[in-house]
Write a structure and sequence with these properties.
Order of helices and strands: HHHHHEEEEEEEEE
Largest sheet: 6 strands, antiparallel
Strand content: 25-35%
Structural class: alpha+beta
Number of strands: 9
Strand order of the largest sheet: 1-2-3-9-4-7
Low-confidence stretches: none
Number of helices: 5
Radius of gyration: 17 Å
Helix content: 10-25%
Oligomer: single chain
Length: 185
């Protein structure tokens, strides 16, 4: 059975997972509730066109692309161009997911940019682990209530099951390259 012939909710779930996004993150980016996304993905309700368009905007797909029958399975990319990175950040925090189209990948990598005065907001918590290196600038990392001030050239390794957040309290841009497991968070 092809991807396009799956029930809409299952197809949306598959696309979300291939992009390495959690239901909660999609809820934030689309303006929908987590429970609405869960209900849609379980095919308990069919999404209204306006709701489907909100989700497809997050996934970078048009309605026609969503319903189109694919010609053939795409091979995972070897070289990923900057324009192909998937933006999952918001509010002055850019998180560009490096994704080659392989649904079976076990590692996700991002290029993160924090504008001066920005933060990931509330403490984040998800199963897995994350490592990263600051390429430029400074960031304040809070892990389980403990604060770590990091500067360019320093790296971190955290258990992401522990509440954590990142804040750029400096007047300069901060850039980080990070990798995390699992591929969804």
């Amino acid at each position: 059975m092809s991807n396009a012939s799956l029930a809409p909710g299952k197809r949306l779930s598959q696309i979300r997972q291939q992009l390495g996004l959690s239901q909660r993150r999609v809820a934030e980016l689309s303006g929908l509730t987590h429970s609405a996304i869960s209900t849609i993905e379980q095919d308990k309700v069919s999404p209204a066109i306006s709701t489907l368009q909100k989700l497809l905007t997050v996934y970078g797909l048009s309605l026609s692309a969503f319903f189109a029958e694919p010609d053939k399975p795409a091979e995972p990319q070897i070289v990923i161009e900057q324009a192909d990175l998937i933006e999952i950040g918001s509010q002055g925090v850019s998180m560009k997911l490096i994704h080659n189209g392989d649904p079976n990948r076990t590692l996700a990598m991002m290029i993160e940019t924090y504008e001066p005065g920005t933060t990931t907001g509330e403490r984040i918590k998800h199963q897995g682990e994350e490592i990263g290196t600051l390429l430029e600038g400074e960031v304040v990392l809070v892990v389980n209530g403990q604060t770590y001030a990091l500067a360019a050239g320093q790296s971190y390794a955290i258990n992401t099951g522990i509440p954590h957040s990142f804040s750029n309290t400096s007047a300069r841009i901060c850039r980080i390259v990070s990798a995390h497991t699992p591929t969804t968070f």
